[in-house]
Design a protein that fits this description.
This protein is an alpha+beta fold and 294 residues long. The protein is built from 9 helices and 6 strands. Helices cover 61% and strands 15% of the residues. It is elongated.
């Protein structure tokens, strides 16, 4: 089964409850030359960087992707707690001090005010293995949603691209049928040019024949028209095949532009030049959309 055409832009979010915490995974992707993944992980989740990259790498081929994994506390179980080790250290220090000089025992609130004795319950006691499993499951779900969003936009872009191919094909047909390409029109143009050349420079008949052949060759756009038709067929085939065809479509757009430039330079009538310029405008619109394709 062929893979659908996909855009490189999209956004997805997956949320999961984890005890008194809420986990949120957000993934955003925009256009990129390759696959560039940037991670922002909640404290304590750094070990999941590579597994998360592997999940995304299997699903995406191109795009600049930003991943944000957040762990927010909810519920009533949060608050403050005593750190037993810190409290033991403080009490041992007070006992040692009492042996050396007389002192009034400190009040409990003074002991609690010592840094490190009373700490925020920040979830340090979370089951790391279980949390990792939840994070990866949420990331996989968010990735699936991102892929679906990118494919949905890719389908819309494919419709636009087909319209651009139709426009290029129609303009190519106009160039092919233009009266300036008829043998009579080319012959008249050649006679005028040769007459002007002969009036300025005395050339032998054989040289005039060579110049006539050169002028006729420069005015012939049959090869450019044939290649434009071939490129349209190749572009439609890429769209029909689906998958990650963005790079090939971009290369094809460059080839389209090259043929349109040559057609304009060879045009022997103002109307044919105008068709060439319309072709260039249609090709620019095509290439702008192609930049969004994976």
């Amino acid at each position: 089964m062929k893979a659908p055409l996909a855009s490189m832009t999209g956004f997805a979010r997956a949320e999961r409850a984890f005890g008194a915490h809420r986990l949120r995974v957000e993934i955003k992707s925009v256009n990129g030359r390759g696959l560039d993944i940037r991670m922002r992980l909640a404290p304590g989740l750094d070990a999941l960087d590579m597994p998360l990259r592997q999940i995304l790498g299997k699903a995406l081929q191109r795009g600049s992707v930003s991943v944000n994994v957040m762990l927010d506390r909810t519920g009533v179980s949060g608050g403050l707690r005593l750190d037993p080790l810190a409290l033991d250290g403080v009490m041992a220090a007070l006992a040692a001090l009492a042996d050396r000089l007389p002192a009034v025992p400190p009040r409990p609130e003074a002991i609690l005010a010592i840094p490190g004795v009373l700490v925020a319950d920040d979830g340090a006691d979370l089951d790391e293995a279980e949390l990792a499993e939840v994070v990866l499951e949420a990331a996989a779900a968010a990735t699936d949603m991102l892929v679906a969003a990118r494919r949905q936009e890719g389908a819309a872009i494919a419709t636009l691209l087909r319209g651009h191919f139709d426009r290029i094909e129609a303009l190519t047909a106009c160039a092919r049928a233009h009266p300036s390409r008829s043998r009579a029109a080319i012959g008249e143009k050649l006679r005028d040019q040769l007459a002007a050349l002969a009036a300025d420079i005395a050339l032998p008949p054989e040289r005039l024949a060579q110049e006539a052949l050169l002028l006729a060759t420069r005015a012939d756009i049959e090869e450019e028209i044939g290649r434009l038709d071939a490129h349209v067929a190749a572009g439609r085939a890429l769209l029909d095949g689906g998958g990650a065809v963005g790079r090939r479509l971009d290369f094809l757009a460059q080839e389209f532009n090259r043929e349109a430039n040559t057609l304009c330079s060879k045009a022997n009538a103002v109307e044919l030049t105008a068709i060439g310029l319309d072709l260039k405008a249609a090709i620019d619109q095509l290439r702008e959309q192609v930049q969004n394709i994976e």
